[in-house]
Amino acid sequence: MNKIHAMTEPLQASLQYAYTLTEDSDNYGNPVLWLKLEDKRDLLNAARVVANLGGRCVTATAYKTEEGHTLIYHLDIDGILLNIEAYTTDHTIDAITPLLPSADWAEREFREMYGIEPVGHPNNERLFLDESLMKGVLNRYIPLSKMMLGVSESDILWERVEKEKRA
Amino acid sequence: MEQTVKPRLFRINTGSCNGCDVEFVATAFVPKFHLDQLGVELVDRIEDANILVITGPMTARSQAFFEEAVSKVKPPYVVVGVGTCSVTTGIFRDSYAIYGPLDKYIDVDVNVAGCPPRPQAIAEAIAQGVKILQSKLLDQPMPTKLETIFTDFEAPESYRGRISLDAQKCTACRTCETVCPSGAIKITKTLEGYEHTIWHNTCCFCGNCSYYCPTGAIFTTNDFHTIQRQEEKYTDTHVALIPFHECEDCGKNFIPATEALIHRSYPKEEVPEMLTKSCPECRKRTTFERCYR
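^ inputs. structure came back:
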């Protein structure tokens, strides 16, 4: 328990805006912390604490909401998982890579797949997406009806097949 | 046939999963596939090549490299597209990172579908490519018939080759159309019944259709001959008609349950006669009338 206390205490002291911190555990009984930030500016403060405690970024996930994006950073401090949830509505987030280099790829993935710019990220190169593809490809949701009824490469090819069949 | 030109072969991977490339390596280096009998030489510079073997669905990443490489080849040359990805992009179609199929970027001469194709099929495609190359060089008419080299070879029974359909067993339930990951099956309604089309060139030979078919109507054969000339790309289909039957009560068209399906539902009992003679609406009505009389 002391281990968790050693984490939560500096974390709570560093945060300037409203937040909720909940303690949970996974199926194996390992403690897991969830930190929900009301203001994304607190992200850097939290990341600094994690860096000071010798933690690392495991991965980060993003998903689209109606107003913008929800980002969750999954950080690990000596075997305890700390999940930081933040919101952004203006497609930017303060990059934590200068503090935690392990977040490098995850934040570049935000940039490419969701069009969220990690401000202050040291590496501006594309991670894996080709230069010819626009940023934020996963933002372009394709509704199922459009996929089923809209014109796609499949339709174009099958049209040729149907035409040759009738000929 | 007399060798008038030395076929020099160069392989290009346009974002393939390497499945086809592994099969190509097997084709090129295992003597039993007879590639050396064709006098084929593998070259390591594209400038020297006159046969291009291309795999992959043309990903966004590889497209610029591909165009740069291909600009160095001196005509005349022959292009052999290996694998379903290069022919129609198969399961990767409509992805944001896929720019293919291959024939958007280069004039393809021979296609060989498969996921991956058998080495024998690749060898047949290359043999065909050599013939086309000779015709191109000597200004002869293009060969119109494809020759199969491996006539005495049979793939194992369990091999998943070209898909076939037994129209007698099919009930046009559309299960195969739904489960097909590469969109190779299409069922369309016509005046006479349902037309079931299998387009071999986009099939990934996964066998999902035969696995899920409730009556065993659609099945994989061990036929591995999937080579086609480019002109046959859109015509290599298996078309079957599942005809309508006329309902004996109301005269409307309907698709009756096939014998294979009935046998599954009534393995032991006697089969109600109206199953094959009346449409679902009339059967419903008859049943209700029987209940409330």
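The two ends of chain B are 81 Å apart (CA to CA). The interface with chain A takes residues 59-61, 63-64, 88-89, 93-94, 96-97, 101, 183, 186, 188, 197, 199, 202, 234-235, 237, 239 of chain B (CB under 8 Å).
thumbs up if we can close this ticket
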